[in-house]
Amino acid sequence: MSLKPLQRGLQISFTIGYVFLFSILGSAQTPANGASTFPSPAFPERSINSAAPASTTMAVPAADQSHYLISPGDALDVSVFGAPDLSQKAAVNSAGNIYIPLINYVHVAGMHVEDAQKAVEEAYFKSDVLKAPHVSIVITSFASGVVLMGEVVKPGIYPIVGSGKLLDILAEAGGTTATAGQLVTITQKDSNEPKTVFLSSDPVQSMAANVPVQQGDTIIVSKAGVIYVVGEVLAPSGFLMDEKGRYTVMKAVAMAHGTTKFARTSKARIVRRTPEGQQEIPVPLDKILASKSPDIPMQSNDILFVPTSKGKQAAARGAEAAISIATWSAIRF
To answer: pTM higher than 0.70, yes or no?
Structure first.
């Protein structure tokens, strides 16, 4: 079978295609300035006035700011749907007002975001500027919030966002430090009586500590108490108190992995600093370990000292010397 008829057919098809393309190009009109007047693609036209409000500021969504009360010094991003020329960035002045174009000042301090949006909408409606205004406000800079101090990673002032509860504020601050205690003191703005909250390591009990906090509150995370165990113990060290201070001598010795064989447990003592000066408290550790005497509670910064028994050391040295002599004699004879 010859391929010439097939090739001739393809050439004819390509020729027809080129003729059709050039006929379309020739039918297009070219104005004097050289700009093409091809029909535009069939995309829906978009009006300038129907464009979405422009906002170049990255901010927390308004839904997450519902618990925050706007205060003087805050910076707001005010957007008016359908009227981008009226959208603006506004700062809350010392009187608690923001300036709105074509309206003048609108008071927003002490309001939640939703209430401030309604106040601006009502101002536009009453001034006959817009028939059906729809205003959106986003807080881009916070001037007020909760004062967070103590044993947190990043102490400072934090706005009330999210659910407005304690654990949210602690999470914003990066959590507590390694030396943080479990007691949190919350002092409200209009109260001189602080309340305490216990942060438990138990997830169920920790939810009870997730109390609401308000703008202007002062939150202080306490530092964990430390007790020290030194002397004739296997692992002398300092230990953080993380259970409301419920530490005793027996528990401290257990955390230090017990006493050594040279410990003089009958002469142990607690060294405690008091307003009157340093105090030494005798501890009958031998009787406590034998359950013949009640356990003694310890306080923060207490030092439990377990001394060395010179008699046990001398006896141990004598036994070692006897073993050495016996071994030497056996080898010699």
So the answer is: no
pLDDT at 318: 58
Alpha helices by DSSP H, listed for the chain, are: 4-27, 113-126, 166-172, 203-208, 249-255, 285-289, 310-332
Percent of the residues in the chain that have a pLDDT greater than 70, as a whole number: 71
Mean pLDDT of all residues in 36-57 = 35
In this predicted model, what pLDDT tens digit does every residue of 55-78 receive, in sequence order? 333 334 444 677 788 989 889 999
For residues 47 and 164, what is the distance between their CA atoms, to the nearest angstrom? 40
Q: Is 67 helix (H, G, I), strand (E, B) or coil?
A: coil
Give yes or no for residue 32 having a pLDDT over 60: no
CATH 3.40.50.2300 fits 225-311, yes or no: no
Confirm or reject CATH 3.40.190.10 for domain 146-223, answering yes or no: no
SS3 22: helix
CATH tag for 62-141 (out of 3.30.450.40, 3.30.1950.10, 3.60.20.10, 3.90.79.10): 3.30.1950.10
**What is the rounded CA–CA span in Å between residue 268 and residue 282?**
6
**Topology match between the domains 146-223 and 225-311:** yes
CA distances from 1 to 6, 8, 12, 109 (A): 10, 14, 20, 91
Query: Alpha-carbon dihedral of residues 74, 75, 81, 85, nearest 10 degrees?
Result: 140
Do 150 and 180 meet the contact criterion of CB atoms below 8 Å apart? yes
